[in-house]
Amino acid sequence: MLRYMTGGESHGKCLVAILDGMPAGLKLEKRAIDKELARRKIGFGRGRRMAIEKDSVEILSGARHSYTIGSPITLLIKNVDCSGDRLGVILEPRPAHADLSGALKYDHHDIRNVLERASARDTASRVAVGAIAKTLLGEFGIGVTSRVIMIGGIKAKALMEREIADAARSGDTLGGIFEVVAKGVPAGLGSYSQWDRRLDGILAKAVMSIQAVKGVSFGIGFLYASKRGSAVHDEIFYDRKKGFYRKTNSAGGIEGGMSNGEEIVIRAVMKPIATLKKPLASVNINTKKAVKAAVERSDTCAVPACGIVAEGVVALELASAFLEKFGGDSIREVRRNYDGYIKQVKAF
Ligand code: EPS
Questions:
Q1: How many Å apart are CA 222 and CA 261, to the nearest integer?
Q2: CA 303, CA 230: separation in Å to the nearest integer?
Q3: What is the C-alpha separation between 231 and 224, in angstroms, rounded?
Q4: Which one of 36, 41, 49 would you pick to mutate in the ligand 1 pocket, going by the greatest count of ligand atoms within 8 A of its CB?
Q5: Per-residue pLDDT tens for 51-67?
Q6: Which residues are CB-neighbours of 209 under 8 A, at least 6 positions away?
Q7: CATH number, domain at 339?
Q8: What's the rounded Cα separation, in Å, for the pair 285 and 109?
């Protein structure tokens, strides 16, 4: 089992993550993690912060001579903008952000204490951890990618930038839909036998937990509501070379809470960023007077970045399910288990 925790505030000294359960003998390179961190920063509509931050990882533990040694991996990403203590008090909660509920819950009378941790800045840690999971999956021919499907109701790529620029000019923000695809996942990750071992449930939770995500679906998702079973269910075929296979993938690669050997296809919707330059109505948490919501430096649209974060969290959960099935304390042991299972399935 893989597990991880993150810590750090958006404008604090640094972000940290500890990843536990990675077998020994996996190549662990700063370069591979930094590459994923750089991908998270790009995309039209990102704010000025992305130009400020270096997002370069330091590997503090868990590896020697560029290979994991089986002990917890500790990652550190320093914030260039670490102005946290110098930033002013915020009293006007932004609709759609954690601001108000967070202030009530933790009894904070400065909303900055909430937003510093609620901020999507923390997703850098999750991408860093996900990059290591991607390396493990890559060893076994599994790849995880993402793409943008829609931004602000626009599906045509060529028109998206104009829509984002227009929203920015109006002091507004945009959300959208992105897709994550995992290729090369063998049949049998996850299980139907217990609710919390179902792979779709595990992946949905991971993606849903990313800041601003409001919905997750697999395969054709909500289209299932308008179709008959005969029109959508993925019929089963057999070929001596390929083994069992499908000609369609409505299910998005998961049936009965298990991977079925087809591509895993996940879509998720991200709401528009909560910080509006032309702010919405709010209430001062001290005076209770009607005010406009606080305005922070932020993004206009972060859907492509959210897709990269989702790749990371999906990779992490797939790697965890992979290790649950083929687990071992070294990559050599995992490989032996994996090869044995693939042989068994081929001879089924
Ligand atoms: C983010 C860093 C933040 C925001 C954004 C994501 O930096 P700052 O607040 O200093 O501009 O750009 O966070 C939010 C949109 C949010 O609502 O918290 C990052 O590193 O991804």
A1: 22
A2: 34
A3: 10
A4: 49
A5: 999 999 999 999 999 99
A6: 313
A7: 3.60.150.10
A8: 7
What's the pTM value of the predicted model, to 2 decimals?
0.98
CA distance 191 to 156: 38
Tokens of 121: 């800045």
Confirm or reject: Cβ of 123 under 6 Å from ligand 1. yes
Contact 148, 176 (CB under 8 A): yes
Number of independent structural domains in the chain: 1
Pick from 107, 42, 118, 82: nearest CA to 275: 118
Comparing CA positions, the residue from 25, 8, 9 lying closest to residue 17 is 8
Would the pLDDT of 322 be above 90? Answer: yes
Among candidate residues 169, 268, 166, the one with its CA nearest the CA of residue 210: 268
Tracing tokens 């590459």 back to the chain, one arrives at: 35
Instruction: Looking at the chain, list the stretches that DSSP marks H as alpha helix, in order from N- to C-terminal side.
Output: 30-41, 49-52, 99-106, 112-118, 123-139, 157-169, 199-208, 229-232, 303-326, 331-346
For all residues of the chain together, what is the average pLDDT? 97
What are the structure tokens assigned to 130, written together? 């996900």
* Digit-coded pLDDT (tens) for 263-289: 999 999 999 999 999 999 999 999 999
75 DSSP β-pair partners: 17, 59
Domain of residue 292: give its range: 3-346
Mutation to probe ligand 1, out of 6, 9, 10 (largest number of atoms < 8 A from CB): 10
Contact 301, 327 (CB under 8 A): no
**Cα–Cα separations (whole angstroms), residue 298 to 56, 114, 226, 255, 293:** 21, 16, 38, 39, 14
